[in-house]
Design brief:
Layout lengths: L1 H30 L1 H9 L6 H33 L2
Helix pairs in contact: 1-3
Length: 82
């Protein structure tokens, strides 16, 4: 039973850390969008509209990945443990 507790704790911390990273990324991209655009336009030739589409697509994909691969397994282990 200790193994299940360790796995459950692992997914809990994965969820916390990845959700924190997601929130940080979304906050930086929301409040400093011009700075992020200037930083990335030095490497990639994107119009502001294409950059916004790419940025929001990335944040949306990251949100789905965090939910599906961190939160859902943690909740499943939490439910199965009771």
């Amino acid at each position: 039973m200790m193994e299940m507790d360790a796995i459950r704790t692992f997914f809990l911390w994965c969820t916390i850390l990845n959700a924190g990273l997601l929130i940080f990324t979304a906050a930086v991209c929301s409040f400093a969008k011009d700075w992020v655009y200037r930083l990335h336009s030095a490497f990639f030739q994107l119009s502001p509209a294409a950059f916004n589409t790419t940025l929001y697509g990335f944040i949306g994909a990251m949100k789905i990945i965090v939910l599906m691969f961190n939160l859902v397994p943690y909740l499943a282990l939490l439910i199965a443990g009771h």
